[in-house]
Amino acid sequence: MAGKELIVVAALAATAAPLVWVRVAPADVTAWHVDPMHVPRPPRPPREGGWLVRTGEANAAPPVFETDPATLMTAFGEIMRAEPRTRMIYESPAEGRATWVTRTPLIGFPDYTSVKAVPEAGGAALMIWARNRFGVSDMGVNRKRVERWIAELERRLPRR
């Protein structure tokens, strides 16, 4: 192989390797299945890398639904199972928690969403921590996704 061809092949391999890693990198459940109530602080621009919905300090407060935590988690799970390129990586029904990974369409960047259903006065609410794995900014993708999921929950369940 001539020098130029070798350089081209090396450059292609160097470009492809990170893209392949994004697709095949294992998801360590101990690192990604977290309790949204224990996230130290919500993301702030310019380092926006996710979206945090919970009581207390957060990007947004959760809506309260007229149901119990188990029913709320079941409804949210139905929404997540219908979400393209999304799969559950861990579920803990006893804790009322689950974590999903959603991949972007083209490259397959993984975004992780950890959810916890908690009882609230007169119903239940979801605490949600959606964040990207790679890079600093998610360009608002997780926020839009979470807002869409909450809107779908509001169509399915009555709010308090």
What would you note in describing this structure?
This protein is of the alpha+beta class. It is built from four helices and six strands. It has helices spanning 3-24, 29-32, 69-82, 141-156, and strands at 50-53, 64-65, 86-92, 97-103, 110-120, 123-132. The model has no long low-confidence stretch (mean pLDDT 90).
Key attributes of the depicted protein:
4 helices; alpha+beta; 160 residues
Contiguous runs where pLDDT drops below 50 for at least 5 residues: none
Beta fraction of the residues? Answer: 25-35%
Distance between the termini: 70 Å
What is the rounded Rg? 19 Å
Helix content: 25-40%
Topology overview:
Layout: H1 3-24, H2 29-32, E1 50-53, E2 64-65, H3 69-82, E3 86-92, E4 97-103, E5 110-120, E6 123-132, H4 141-156
A few lines on this structure:
The chain has 160 residues and is of the alpha+beta class.
